[in-house]
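Bug #2210: token dump truncated for TPR repeat protein?
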Amino acid sequence: MCRRVLEGKQRLLGPDHPSILAVVHDLGTICDDQGKLDEAEDLFLRALQDWGRSLGTWNISTLMTGQRLCGVYVAQRRFVDAEEICQQVLHGYENSLGSTDPLTLNALCLLSAY
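Reproduced locally. Full output below:
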């Protein structure tokens, strides 16, 4: 279903429209939940790069996508990649939301696992 929504929205709005990226992120989450890690990685990387370019690297949507990508890397046992992304996410949350925000603290907790 999400793939059909994505294809239809891309035809109507173009591939870089912000609502397209939300669908890409959601589809990545579905693939991650289904254990389709390579597909989830590709989708999260697309959303991360496009959101970073259009909204900035410290935008909450960009950071949340980075956090999901970190989870994919952990599931793939790519711990160095996971740690790198998680550090970037933590830095972004600290700069955007402050050091005591729950999202920042969650990213810190995830990073401490590496």
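Output looks complete on our side. The chain has one domain: 2-112. Marking as cannot-reproduce; reopen if the truncation happens again.
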